């Protein structure tokens, strides 16, 4: 279906008004949502408690405030006052910050939602991000969108994940930092029963290769966690077959 053409803009007059900060936020949010985070209104006249605020800064618009959150990989949400031009960033767990939120007249509170563009395979959905990060930062970026760094648990998931790219490699949620040679899920410390290693790998080159990457050839390799790679995030979506109100379901391709 072709997208309808936009009407020609009316000539600007001295009485024309600029869009409000909220309208600017909504317009820009379309682009932000497509690429990174989606912000959802959590409440009016509310802000996270003082212990859950990681940054307070001046922001002339709500868009500016959202971009401050966007640039902080730990940001889980923000509250903004258009009258005071103040932005408060929260990096606390959404559940805790929500429970401890306090009445704050003039502030609107937003939480980050799920990112669009995930592709479903089996009981999970995945999205690859072409942004080079360390293993730690990639994990945090996935957490920040209510997802986790992807890790294939069987041959089918491994092949599907690898098919998301046609060259190079990207981080997966696997490391042997605790015990050399024992590969675990980095978040849960559960031992991984599956791994499709490239010939001769893992070799712990230089004694510092504790994290795993997955190549477009569907092969694993160990490298130093401090190196930078693209990454892929995953979310569980089995409940989408039963619950269409789960916000994650609306983000599947």
Q: Could you explain the architecture of this structure?
A:
It is a single chain. The protein is of the alpha+beta class and 253 residues long. The protein folds into 2 domains: 21-112, Hepatocyte Growth Factor; 119-251, Mannose-Binding Protein A, Chain A (Roll). The chain contains 5 helices and 12 strands. The protein has helices spanning 21-35, 62-70, 94-99, 135-144, 155-162; strands spanning 39-47, 53-58, 77-81, 86-90, 102-112, 119-121, 124-133, 148-149, 169-175, 211-215, 220-223, 229-236. The strands form 2 sheets. Strands 6, 7, 8, 9, 10, 11 and 12 form a 7-stranded mixed β-sheet that branches. Helix 1 (21-35) packs parallel to helix 2 (62-70). The longest helix has 15 residues, at 21-35. It is elongated and about 60 Å long. The two termini are 17 Å apart. The model is unreliable at 1-36 and 242-248 (pLDDT under 50). This is Putative collectin-11. It is found in: Secreted.
Regions with little confidence, pLDDT below 50 for 5+ residues: 1-36, 242-248
Which shape, going by the Cα principal axes?
elongated
| Strand residue content | 25-35%
CATH topology of the largest domain: Mannose-Binding Protein A, Chain A
Domain tally: 2
What is the CATH top level name of the largest domain? Alpha Beta
* Biggest β-sheet description: 7 strands, mixed
**Strand segment count:** 12
Number of helices: 5
What is the radius of gyration computed over CA atoms, rounded to a whole number of angstroms?
A: 21 Å
Task: Output the structural class.
Answer: alpha+beta
The CATH architecture of the largest domain = Roll
Give helix and strand order, one letter per element, not per position: HEEHEEHEEEHEHEEEE
Helical percent range? Answer: 10-25%
């Amino acid at each position: 279906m072709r997208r309808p053409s936009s009407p020609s803009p009316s000539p600007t007059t001295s009485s024309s008004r600029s869009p409000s900060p909220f309208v600017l936020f909504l317009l820009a949010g379309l682009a932000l949502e497509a690429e990174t985070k989606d912000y959802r209104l959590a409440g009016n006249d509310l802000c996270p408690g003082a212990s859950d605020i990681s940054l307070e800064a001046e922001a002339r618009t709500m868009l500016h405030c959202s971009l401050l959150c966007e640039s902080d990989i730990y940001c889980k949400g923000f509250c903004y006052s258009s009258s005071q031009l103040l932005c408060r960033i929260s990096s606390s767990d959404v559940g805790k910050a929500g429970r401890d939120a306090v009445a704050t007249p003039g502030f609107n509170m937003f939480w980050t939602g799920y990112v669009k563009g995930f592709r479903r395979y089996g009981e999970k959905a995945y999205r690859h991000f072409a942004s080079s990060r360390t293993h730690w930062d990639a994990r945090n970026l996935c957490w920040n969108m209510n997802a986790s760094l992807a890790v294939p648990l069987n041959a089918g998931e491994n092949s599907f994940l690898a098919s998301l790219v046609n060259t190079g490699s990207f981080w997966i949620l696997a490391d042997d930092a605790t015990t050399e040679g024992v590969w675990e899920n980095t978040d849960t410390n559960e031992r991984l029963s599956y791994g499709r290693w490239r010939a001769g790998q893992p070799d712990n080159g230089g004694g510092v290769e504790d994290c795993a990457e997955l190549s477009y050839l569907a092969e694993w390799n160990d490298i130093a966690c401090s190196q930078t790679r693209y990454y892929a995030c995953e979310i569980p979506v089995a409940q989408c077959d039963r619950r269409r109100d789960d916000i994650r379901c609306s983000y599947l391709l």
